[in-house]
Design a protein that fits this description.
Elements lengths: L4 H11 L9 E4 L4 H11 L3 E4 L2 E6 L2 E10 L4 E3 L1 H7 L1 H22 L12 E9 L3 H11 L5 E9 L1 H8 L4 E7 L18 H8 L7
Parallel strand pairs: 1-2, 1-6, 6-7, 7-8
Antiparallel strand pairs: 3-4, 4-5
Helix pairs in contact: 1-2
Length: 210
Amino acid sequence: MFRDRFDAALQLGERLREFRGHNPLVLAIPRGGVPMGRVLADLLQGELDVVLVKKIPAPGQPECAIGAVDEAGRCHVTPAAERHFGKAYVETAAEAQRALLAERRERYSQVCSNVDPRGRSVIIVDDGSATGSTMEAALAVTRLRRPGLLVAALGVASPAVIRRLESTADRVVCVEISDDFFAVGQFFERFPQVSDEEVLALLVPSGQTE
């Protein structure tokens, strides 16, 4: 079990130390991935930005993802999920998440410059993934921008999620891979919600002020 996201990021940084000094671009998935992204960017002497994706929740289960939408507007949902929950529900839920992404981009643009990943080693980080949906969407939308190397970095995930991500990323790095997986938070002693205010503060480069 991790003490907190900082502990998870330190352990992840050890597995990614080959990138240190090569100015990797660390793209964090808000909001939980941003504290880890800040630590990784500093450890690896890289640059931090965000990649904006939002999960599409199952009806009545906000923590359970059936898919995700990306900032390009694309909806990443399996045909099986669409059949099970209905096309109308998926489209309505996806549109609501696109609106939230637009609001988030406007808010984060105070400190984010939407860094161009073309030709760079890009590490997309999140604290963990129960289904792989948001990380898969983040990888797919970043791939469109032609990174040189695309890495998925996670604190914790299940073996099934790792297999799913390996078809999208050039490399998948995960500290804890567990079959006994119900929620990301079960692997952290402290797992507080991360606010937008905290995200904005973390996105400011270390040693600078807004």
